[in-house]
C-alpha cells in the first residue's frame, strides 16, 4: 500500500479506519456501533470482532451491492489470486505458504 495524497488515498483511508477501532479489541475487523459517535473521541467499533459468518459472506454482499457481473465469494477471490500468482511465475512453495493451499 502506498500514499497518493489524493482524495481516496488508500493509506489515508486505512489510517483513518485503524484510528476508529476499539482499542481493547485486537481484531482488525470489528463490529460497528449502530450509531456513530458524534464527538469524534470514541471508537466507531465495539470491543467485539466481526463474526465468522459475517466475514464469510462479505465478498458476496459486496459484489452484489456493487452490481458486478456475477456474485463473487471469498473462495473465488482466493482461487483467482492463486491462479494469478501461479501464472506470474511464483514458486509453488511460496503460493502454498500464503494461501495455505498447495497447487
Please provide a written account of the structure.
The protein is mainly α and 103 residues long. Helices cover 45% and strands 8% of the residues. The protein contains 4 helices and 2 strands. It has a two-stranded antiparallel ribbon with strand order 1-2. The chain is extended, with a radius of gyration of 17 Å. The two termini are 27 Å apart. 3% of the residues are buried. The model has no long low-confidence stretch (mean pLDDT 86).
Strand order of the largest sheet: 1-2
Rough outline: extended
Number of helices: 4
Which structural class is indicated by helix and strand composition?
Answer: mainly alpha
Strand count, sense and closure of the main sheet?
2 strands, antiparallel
Mean pLDDT: 86
Order of helices and strands: HEEHHH
Helical fraction: 40-55%
Q: What's the alpha carbon Rg, rounded to whole Å? A: 17 Å
Question: Number of DSSP strands?
Answer: 2
Beta-strand percentage? 5-15%
| First-to-last CA distance | 27 Å
The low-confidence parts are: none
